[in-house]
Specification:
The structure is a homodimer. Chain A has helices spanning 2-31, 50-54, 57-68, 72-80, 90-101, 116-127, 143-152, 167-180, 204-217, 240-243, 278-293, 301-313, 319-343, 372-382, 411-432; strands at residues 36-37, 110-113, 133-137, 156-158, 184-190, 220-224, 249-254, 266-269, 352-353, 361-365, 384-385, 387-388, 401-405. By secondary structure, chain A is an alpha/beta fold. Chain A folds into two domains: 18-41 and 322-432, Aspartate Aminotransferase, domain 1, CATH 3.90.1150.10; 52-314, Type I PLP-dependent aspartate aminotransferase-like (Major domain) (Aspartate Aminotransferase, domain 2, 3-Layer(aba) Sandwich), CATH 3.40.640. In chain A, the strands form three sheets. A seven-stranded mixed beta sheet of chain A has the order 2-8-7-6-5-3-4, sandwiched between helices. A four-stranded antiparallel beta sheet of chain A has the order 9-10-13-12, with no helix packed on it. The first copy, chain A, has a two-stranded parallel sheet with strand order 1-11. In chain A, strand 6 (220-224), helix 10 and strand 7 form a beta-alpha-beta unit. The model of chain A is unreliable at 1-12 (pLDDT under 50). Chains A, B: It comes from Burkholderia plantarii. Chains A, B: This is Aminotransferase, class I and II. Chains A, B: Keywords: Aminotransferase, Pyridoxal phosphate, Transferase.
Chain lengths: 433, 433
């Protein structure tokens, strides 16, 4: 009991600390409205076409009428009514996920959620049911999974490969260490393609190694993939969902980046069999629906119809729609990396970064610690806002890193922002020298 | 610890039993598709006007553009983007709640949620934070609150006035009994106007008595009011929110019945001061937003704009829009009560019911127990589906009652359904005689 309370206190402290950073960042944006911000990973809104997408609702309505042998009027009324908890556009989503993201699945495997965040909020407590059940995540990790675990009172622990270790070995090591403490790892959250916050990618061997470890220790991998359609160089790696032989991967889908966040439509795609058992997969699907019925009842059928209508118009693929924003993000990535190279000795000095092949983020390592105080100094004295990587850290490490988002600012702002950031780094190093 | 586990097991059993009834009712509807159903409390979809309401989105967009000094295009882009966690149509909702429901509040008191169900899912764990914190509810009660408590592992207990007792006295008695068990009542869920499932109303004295008890024992009353705009006779009683002198009532609003369920827009309206403290109200508001950011991020701004656009078009009141459905529901209530009178000796015999002044439901008391077996018999042999009241009961009582919903069926179906139900009751009593 003492240990439990200790763990809860630590969780609460970590959550409070993250919350305070989040509040602080909002305040910084308000206090320094003319600062250039690399903080927000929002998609670029100039590519949203809300009016056009709303006009696709009748397309879905006509489709639903045909499918059910109803009049268009009757289909419209049922669309506005309460509906199936697990969603109504599951078949259209399954088709799109197969075509665009290499996720071969059937409609019955898809649970439509109010954004991917709701899928996390339903899955974490469904997987971690007993005291001592814990979640794993790469470190640093997306704040959305940490917040869910914190509020559900479920411990979330970092997992990383130690020198020379495979993921399978790392999972075995962590699972054994947890067992000795009377704990059990039930889920492993990760974004293998263009991770938030680091921008990195896991290769196929790493993905297969994680799957082997998850199957061995009966850990459910939650494969988040909001950025998969935003690749700028090279070729995509198969999603873990498609490499999973016996069913340990749940795939998380979202339309927040490919269409727009305001639709609040995402999904959890369950494997046909969970650890080899069709019945277990069915039970988890049923439990997610049951939980969802007490959170959002069902995902808005208005926005499901909007997404469904766009999918019908685009013949089941969003590849054409993401072309323009992808070109914009690629340009931003190039601008950002180029500006960093010019500002910081081509990356050969004490300031280093990665050049991501896709996604919205990259990480920069600094020759000094960068926390809350530094964020204020940087915003106040140099007019640029960046995210301390500790905000995403599960254990307080990564103190000398920051995350730069390049999805929302334009190229001039990126150039100017990097110059300002370099000014801050120079001043900081000058002061230390 | 033993007691904790006992409580959890009881909770789990109760939840499983409710779930099995729910599954069973869905199956009954599938197995007996030609049965007339009094089970569903869905609003009547012939009054939905999805196409017209979607056309109101640009009205909200223009309004938002004017308010922010932006172009309509820019406002549309921001509408499609991530947005404020607590919502964007708070001021319009506050205006409508004041005009239509007597809930005087300001925008800052409103937290917009993905349907009222999300408000419950956020509030219950926010109010019941410590082990031993429990929820209270009238008995029987809406299944949405029970499901939230069950999944959050929070005990939910029935509270009823014993003979001659006021609500204030009942709250004092229950609070004292809980204290002796080391427990604390933190919240009290109720629907004072046209309760689901009973259709009953609490008068002003009862509402004031509940408020007095809640203030004395620091219990937050969750006043749900989905049916308040559907009154057929008499005059409305002031909502508890407006009778609350020091801040113990949170008002729950929804557009699922006044507009349509598919918008998934509701709200929690917080008092200005919580138990007299403005800071405490602010902390609860902030916590609800924080929790929401890890469940649905924000309520779809597409559907918020739809609701906002309709509110703008209707000049801040939905009174005109609900006229036609209200007349339909009133007719259904009259048809149902008339049919019951004809079928069951004018209510002077062993079968009795209430004549609700509004809402979607009434309760019928039978001269025998009506559970799962009886529901099947009734559907299979007599072609009519009714809800056993035990489904809504927190303690297994109400075994000889059923709930009849009259919102969704047409008048002929209601007449025919009551004849069928009377045939079942006669057969059952004949068999027992």
């Amino acid at each position: 009991m003492q240990r439990e309370e200790g763990a809860l206190t630590t969780q609460a402290t970590a959550a409070a600390s993250r919350l305070s950073v989040m509040n602080f960042l909002n305040e910084a944006a308000n206090d320094y409205p003319r600062a250039i911000s690399f903080a927000s990973g929002r998609p670029a809104e100039q590519f949203f076409s809300l009016e056009g997408w709303l006009a696709a609702v009748p397309d879905y309505q006509a489709h639903a009428a045909r499918a059910a042998g109803q009049s268009v009027t009757q289909a419209g009324r049922l669309l506005a009514q309460y509906g199936r908890t697990a969603g109504i556009i599951n078949a259209l989503m399954a088709e799109q996920l197969g075509r665009d993201e290499g996720v071969a699945c059937e409609a019955a495997q898809v649970v439509v959620t109010a954004g991917c965040q709701e899928a996390l909020a339903l899955l974490v407590p469904a997987l971690c049911r007993a005291p001592g059940d814990v979640m794993l995540a790469r470190n640093p990790t997306y704040i959305g999974i940490t917040g869910v675990a914190d509020f559900a009172g479920i411990e979330i622990l970092p997992i990383e490969c130690e020198d020379g270790e495979s993921w399978e070995q790392a999972l075995a090591r962590v699972a054994a260490a947890l067992r000795r403490e009377g704990k059990t790892a039930r889920g492993f959250y990760l974004t293998p393609e263009f991770d938030n916050p680091t921008g990195t990618v896991l290769d196929e061997a790493e993905r297969r190694s994680i799957i082997a470890g998850c199957l061995e220790h009966r850990i459910v991998a939650l494969e988040d993939n909001p950025y998969g359609m935003f690749r700028y160089d090279g070729t995509s790696t198969a999603p873990m969902f498609s490499l999973d032989p016996a069913g340990c991967v749940i795939y998380l889908a979202t339309y927040s980046k490919t269409l727009c966040p305001a639709v609040r439509v995402g999904a959890a795609v369950l494997p046909r069999r969970l650890f080899g058992s069709e019945a277990a997969a069915g039970r988890l699907r049923a439990e997610l629906s049951e939980r969802k019925s007490f959170v959002t009842v069902n995902t808005s059928q208005v926005t499901q119809a909007l997404v469904g209508g766009v999918l019908l118009r685009e013949a089941g693929s969003l590849a054409r729609l993401v072309e323009a924003p992808r070109a914009f993000y690629r340009g931003n990535r190039d601008t950002l990396v180029g500006a960093l190279e010019r500002a910081f000795d081509g990356g050969r000095g004490a300031v280093r970064w990665n050049r991501p092949d896709g996604g919205f983020f990259l990480g920069v390592t600094l020759p000094f610690e960068f926390g809350q105080r530094e964020t204020v100094e940087c915003a106040r004295d140099h007019g640029v806002i960046v995210m301390p990587m500790t905000f995403f850290s599960l254990d307080g490490t990564r103190r000398d890193e920051v995350r730069l988002a390049f999805s929302n600012a334009g190229p001039e702002a990126i150039e100017d922002g990097v110059r300002r950031f370099a000014g801050y780094v120079d001043a900081k190093r000058g002061a230390a020298a």
